[in-house]
Design a protein that fits this description.
The protein is 44% helix and 21% strand. The chain is an alpha/beta fold. The longest helix is centred in the middle third of the chain and has 47 residues.
Length: 423
């Protein structure tokens, strides 16, 4: 059953004339919408620095309060992370529920998380966010009979309860960390296995809603994968939180793994970035990154900057990257087009995929060698291995054995070096 619709006033402070302020607010509206919150008004203020007590200036509080009553709202959302004391002061001054951008994003993540790992990561981030703010959650303190000016006896009870809550949260954080560490170890084992199998990994990264899942699905369809391998795609923020891993097999037998990661958003809560570190480490271990960009959005350069900053924060550096300017049809740009490591495509229309696969191929299969081999008939196992794992161009049956022209990876070339002709 759908909960009661919340009606919110959103509040933003434009610090030192930030050129991305308008876009950040628009994103806040979208984040609220993703949670079924109706935005009924907006209050903004230009400041050189944040008011440490109330985030906004004193005069703005009255304006927000008047607007809140007039619009019959039941929630105020601030476009930044508020400190514990700011939440407490604002709730007291406005006499209503106050949440910040971080809470909003955490809530969306909590609803979208499907796998056990994503759920644990979101819960960890929520608890880490809540811990220092326990004292500021006025309503819960009120229920505990403390903190509302009701004498020392009551306050003591409230504080005892608070101590217990704090301990409970700390225990839960420790447990989640242990469990996630275990999941991380499993991941590392899987990655080592992949490395051993020498399967290259291509990782899709990018801002939320840039079309990452669409790119993945079109590539799967293009290489003849079944529909049940498709990943969820929808025009909404954070549609996918899980890392999907799919195997792509090219017509010439070359294979690579395609992984999809969580989308980024500006001011992504620090706790979340930390919590999703292991998921994003998939990108750190990749042989190639596909940075998907919604080029039809006029803020696309800023989105690219946010994505790069976030990747940097989790230690993803020095991984070769292709910039994929998606939705080129909506931006009315010339596509499909390739220029160096930049490609202009439209994943929805399926245009630019051939070029993309070709570019991926040249990047991750650069160490492949073309050669001729003469393999004795008693070593038929090698011929069948190369038929499966390499790209055999021609085979002829000679007196001494099978003569093949083959494109194969460097390691296989070295392994069967003795059979190579004309070394």
């Amino acid at each position: 059953m759908e909960e009661l619709l919340e009606r919110a006033i959103v509040v933003g402070v434009n610090l030192k004339k930030d050129e991305h302020f308008e876009y950040g607010l628009e994103e806040l509206h979208n984040l609220a919408e993703a949670l079924n919150v109706e935005v009924v008004g907006e209050v903004t203020q230009n400041l050189d620095r944040i008011n440490s007590a109330h985030y906004v200036g004193k005069g703005k509080i009255d304006e927000i309060k008047a607007f809140y009553d007039e619009a019959d709202a039941n929630l105020v959302i601030f476009n930044d992370e508020l400190s514990p004391s700011q939440i407490r002061n604002l709730e007291e001054a406005l006499e209503c529920k106050v949440i910040d951008r971080t809470m909003l994003i955490l809530d969306i993540f909590a609803r979208r998380a499907k796998s056990k790992e994503a759920q644990m990561q979101v819960e960890l981030a929520q608890l880490q966010y809540m811990l220092p703010r326990l004292i500021g959650l006025r309503a819960s303190l009120g229920r505990q009979g403390g903190g509302t000016g009701g004498g020392f006896k009551n306050r003591g009870a409230g504080e005892t309860k608070l101590e217990l809550d704090r301990r409970k949260i700390e225990d839960q954080i420790a447990k989640l960390r242990r469990d996630l560490e275990h999941v991380k170890e499993q991941r590392v084992t899987q990655r080592k296995q992949r490395k051993k199998n020498e399967v290259p990994v291509v990782s899709i990264v990018g801002y939320t809603n840039a079309g990452k899942s669409t790119v993945m699905n079109r590539l799967l369809a293009k290489t003849g994968q079944l529909d049940d391998k498709q990943v969820f795609e929808k025009d909404m923020l954070f549609a996918t939180l899980e890392t999907s891993v799919r195997q792509i097999r090219l017509p010439d037998q070359k294979e690579f793994l395609l992984t999809d990661t969580v989308g980024f958003v500006s001011k992504l809560p620090t706790h979340l970035v930390k919590a999703f570190r292991s998921t994003l480490e998939e990108a750190r271990e990749a042989d190639l990154l596909l940075h998907v960009v919604d080029v039809s959005n006029e803020e696309y350069r800023y989105m690219m900057h946010v994505t790069n900053e976030t990747l940097h924060a989790v230690g993803v550096e020095d991984v070769p990257t292709l910039e994929l300017y998606n939705k080129s049809d909506l931006a009315e740009l010339n596509y499909p087009r390739v220029s160096g490591n930049s490609l202009w495509i439209s994943a929805k229309e399926g245009k630019g995929l051939d070029e993309l696969l070709e570019t991926i191929r040249t990047h991750i299969f650069a160490d492949y060698k073309m050669c001729r081999m003469l393999i004795p008939y008693e070593r038929g196992d090698i011929v069948s291995y190369l038929n499966e794992q390499a790209s055999v161009q021609t085979s002829e049956y000679e007196e001494e054995g099978t003569l093949i022209k083959v494109e194969l990876r460097q390691s296989d070339y070295e392994r069967y070096h003795e059979f190579v002709l004309g070394k």
